[in-house]
Amino acid sequence: MSKPDPVALERFRYQQGQRLRSADRRDQVAIEGQLRWWHNRAMHNAFGVAEGMAVNRQIDHVVVEPGIAYDNRGRELTLQKPRTVALPILSETDDLTTWLLVARYKETSEFTKRSEFSGGCFCHGSFFLESPEFLWKLKGEWMPQDGVPLASFDFGGVTKRRRNPRFVKPVEHGQARHRVVTGETLIGNTDWEPWIEAERELGFQVKIDTRQSGFTQTPCYFAWLQRITPSPPARLSVVVPFSHILNESLGGFTFRVWLPSLFMPGNTNDTVRRMNQDRNPLEAKLRFYVAWLAIEEGLGLALRHHEEDEDKGESL
Length: 316
Description:
Number of helices: 4
Order of helices and strands: HEEEEEEEEEEEEEEEEEHHEH
Strand content: 25-35%
């Protein structure tokens, strides 16, 4: 049986009386691994370091402590013993560049074969321990499919070597998925209040609470005014409503509705009366409510944008 495709779902079926070979067992383990990885990325969207994987800088190398991480395909990157990784080889004339230490999945076929062990090292169990592969990648060339970044260093020539303090190691989470939450105020019982500026009543406003949405950073809010259709339907009395959002925070925002006094020639007293009623928060409570949408940027993109903003600030 050929190696399962990374995006294919397969099942292994046995027949009564079938003679099993060692290859059948290996195929069964490979398929079970594929199904587990599909679960990790489809249900948990796992990516990043789950535990351990600390990087300690030495003179001419780094030491990665044991731990576990998940790549962007949901595969486990398990390190059971500390691993020493040499620093990248640079010439004295190389400019200062930023490098990432990346851990990536190592295929079983890439491990040392039993026939290649010498008689003296065969007894050491470390050759059979699960371990990812470590490599250095330039920051500008790194992509999520390359592996999980564990540390960042600035290298230039032979003497300029320093750790990047702004680097944030990705912790196991949804890779870059946005958090989208929608909601609306109570229909027919929205807690409107007057909007007063310079002792003038300009319209009405409502404070919307989003604390139960579980945001970890201030999201992008979108909101719009909704009108309760009366029964029987009546002509819309609010002719020109303007709305905007302010005071955005983790816990909510304020939605304001401006109702300018635009009375065209020919307006009847009845029209004026209805518009004045709509400016009243008590009347607006029965007539209008607010629907809103909040989008929190995925953690992976947020960290990348944060680093880009810092880089722009330094260049200025």
